[in-house]
Design goal:
34% of the residues are buried. The protein is 63% helix and 11% strand. It has two domains: 308 residues, ABC transporter type 1, transmembrane domain (ABC transporter transmembrane region fold), CATH 1.20.1560.10; 242 residues, Rossmann fold, CATH 3.40.50. The protein is of the alpha/beta class and 570 residues long. Bound molecules: adenosine-5'-triphosphate (ATP). The site of adenosine-5'-triphosphate has 10 residues, from helix 11.
Amino acid sequence: MDKKHAFRKNISFYLSVVFNVIEGMLAGFNFIVLYYTIKALITEQLTMSMLTQTILLLGAVFVIRLIVYAFGYTRGQIGGAQVSRILRLSLGDKMKKIPLSSFTKAQIGEYINATTTSVNNYENILTHKIGDIIKNTSFSLLLIGFVATHSISAGIVLLCSGLLLLPSLYLSFLMVKKYGNEKKNIMTKNTSDVVEYINGIQTLRSFGLGGVKNKATTDSMKAYSDISYVYEIKVIPIGTIFSILCWFSLPIVLYLAGHQWLAGNLEASSFFLISISPLFTCKLFGTLFIDLTSYKNFMIAKRQIEAVLDAEEEPSSDAFFEPEQYSIAFHNVNFAYSQEEPVLRDINFEIGSSQFVAIVGPSGSGKSTILNLITKYYEPNRGDILIGQQTIQSIATEKVMPKISMVDQDTFLFNDTILNNIRYTKPEATKQEIINAAKEANCHDFIEKLAYGYDTIIGENGNKLSGGERQRISIARAILKDSPILLLDEATASLDIENELAVKEAIKNLLKKKKTVVMIAHTLSIIKNADNILVVDGGQIVEEGSHQSLIAEEGKYAAMWKKEHQLSIV
Ligand SMILES: Nc1ncnc2c1ncn2[C@@H]1O[C@H](COP(=O)(O)OP(=O)(O)OP(=O)(O)O)[C@@H](O)[C@H]1O
């Protein structure tokens, strides 16, 4: 869906504009009726029947106005809701196309604000602000026009007081541009910080950094309240000065109308009408100033939505991807998360279809990055990655991902039942298939012991489960998905002995399946039988071979093996 279509207004919106103009006119009509009643009173022509007719007329206008208001309001609400629905769908659609590498901490705040606050604000412009602005403008113009038919000079004064809106709005728009944008940026950062804070609340509390001591979040909240204060401080004086200047129209109009009346050029009823008109116009102009400033402010929301809709998309491709076999190859692959720091340098390896290859190496050496490139979370800066002899850079992520199962260190679980969490990778799976996968993943027994078994809701990101249990659920997902490539990031070192053994057993069951397996191993005993072991250090493959050959080589791998065994003896 293109950007133009996402913001396109609909017939309901335009109808609400028409109804708002009519409502503004009808509000002015009351004023005119009042004028003729007063005129009849002053000229002593007011009779009971005339008064009754006037009241009936006002009653009828009131009912018509009520109907027009109801229609205008409902149309405006429906129109606005339809636009924001299309906007939300467009944003959701866009999110699917944005490369995963763009979901950085800063961008997350931007995306959350764009899809929530900004869409709400933009909807508010359509459903309330535009209608109010149109209504008040048409009422003001009708009033000024009516006054001008009795006294041109008074009409000009009222018009001039209205025109004071132009310089005032120019100044307030400058403030909105300066501080409104800054406010938006701070709010975006604030959202990112709050998301990070909530995600890390357990860790923060364990270090006693929960409340006010969490400086980053507190600072960002303070920065937001500071900028909001500065913004108000800058805009309020402009509105106040405008109001004061606008109210000068009252004595001037009084003087002009009085002068005309004394000279016998104005009827008493017209004098009365003209003298009270500034009371209405000043109120209307004040409201217009506030509404137009808010309108400008809300337009920042529109730009924030536009920025997300304009974000660079992953290159799409119609290329076919159904390889006959699932070998994986890296040819001279170079990669850096940021330009200054290369993470992988000239990586070359071949993994035959259905082979089991392990990657080992020190922390930060680039092991997970290799998996991130196979899953297309990131694209290499140089070199080629091939699956089944097809270069995957030219293939859409959604075509590659179904061929890969990933068992990561950070298992993401939904706040749903265990059954649904496992089923996630194969929505059509039967309960029996899920139970079989859970048995192979070594989690059936602990699930059965839970009060509601497979129907147990596991909490936000599975927080009711232990680390080992979460990992086994993730393995069950991979078993159920049954894709030809399996990427594993084994992280059993942080588990207690019971969980470590259970996870290792589950991994062994997973490895029995005939798949192309790439496994990052943090403990070496589990990969002794791998077809090939890649030893990564400083973003390069420094050794490669079977367990026996690497031990015989007496290099890095042999040293790691020795250390692990010394540790296990201790
Ligand atoms: N998203 C990222 N943005 C920027 N730098 C990153 C990102 N992810 C990893 N890095 C950096 O890239 C380097 C390699 O990280 P990687 O996670 O691939 O190492 P690893 O060998 O898997 O480490 P570990 O065994 O500790 O998981 C590290 O210096 C790390 O700080």
